[in-house]
Amino acid sequence: MQPERKAGSNAHLKWVSEIPPLLLVDGAEFDKTIVTLYAYRHSYAQRHADAGTPPDVLRDLLGHEDIGTTQTYYRVTEKRLRSAVDKVVAFQLDRHGNRVWPEAKALLDHEHARMRVGAVTVPFGTCSEPSNVKAGGHACPFRFRCLGCGHFRTDPSYLPELRDYLHTLLRNKERIRAATELDSWAAVEAAPSDEEISRLRALIRLTERAVDELTDEDRAVLEDATSALRKVRQAVNLGMPGTAPPRSDPRLERNA
Ligand code: SF4
After folding, report:
1. Do residue 93 and residue 192 come from a single domain?
2. 126, 132, 158, 161, best to mutate for ligand 1 pocket (most atoms within 8 Å of CB)
3. Which ligand 1 atom sits closest to the C-alpha of 148?
4. Least reliable range by pLDDT among 71-75, 180-184, 216-220, 231-235
5. Which atom of ligand 1 is nearest to the CA of 152?
6. Of the candidates 163, 186, 167, which has an alpha carbon nearest to the alpha carbon of residue 176?
C-alpha cells in the first residue's frame, strides 16, 4: 500500500474506533470492523444502483474503464429487480412480434420469479409450456422450435441472443449450401428454413424498433432494467444447459 494511502487508512481506522457504537434499525450493534475505506465505494455504488443510475454513468462516477468491474460493486436488489421486470415486460413480444402486454402491468409474484431467474428461460426468451416449465426448461416437446411456438415470448433483454441466433442460422445455411456430402433431402432437412430466418429477422426488427421509438430517458431506463435482468440471469443460468441458444439442427452441429 502506498504510504499516503496507508496513513489515510490508519486515520480512518482510528476515527471508526473512536466514534460511538453504530446501531442498526433493530437496535443491534453494527460491526465496525467492516467499515473500511473501500466499503464506502461499494455503498456509494449500491445507492446509485438502487436509485436507478445507469451502469455506464456509474462506471464513469467510479472511474472504471470496464463496466464489468462496476457491476461487481453492487447487487441487484429485489426492489430494483422487480422494477426491472415490470419495465422490460411491457415490451414483451410473441412469436409474431405482437406486444403481449399493451401496457405495463404489475406481475404476479410467481411471474416475476419466473422471468427474472429464467427458470423457464429458453433460447432468446421465455417458455410457458407446462411440461417444459415443470422440467425447468429442459423438456421442450417441440425440439426448441420457439420461433414457431405459441408458448414463446421475448423482449429487448434477449436482443443479443436473438442476434446471435440469426448469425448462427445464416452461417449454417451457407455451410449446408456448400456441403457436397449431403443428399438433397438431407440438405433440405438440415438447413434452417427461410420461414424461421424471416421470423427471426422480423422479431429483431420489431424489438429494435420498439426500443428506438423510446425517448432517450425511457431508453436509458429500459437499458438499465435489461442490464439488471441479464446480470441475474447470467448468475442463475450458469451451468444450465437448457438456457443455451438452440442448435439450428442437432445433426448439423454434430457434423460441424
Ligand atoms: S418450442 Fe420453445 S416455447 Fe415452445 S414449448 Fe418448446 S421451448 Fe417452449
Report:
1. yes
2. 132
3. 1
4. 231-235
5. 3
6. 186
Is the minimum distance from the CB of 203 to ligand 1 under 6 angstroms?
A: no
**Nearest-atom index, ligand 1, CA of 149:** 4
Expressed as residue numbers, the domain containing 192 is 79-255
Check whether residue 185 and residue 96 sit in a common domain: yes
What is the overall mean pLDDT for the chain? 77
Q: Which three cell numbers stand for residue 137?
A: 426448461
The pLDDT, as a whole number, for residue 12 is 85
Are residues 95 and 46 both part of a single domain?
A: no
What are the angstrom distances between the C-alpha of 170 and each of 155, 159, 191, 215?
A: 22, 17, 9, 33
**Residue 109, pLDDT score:** 54
pTM: 0.59
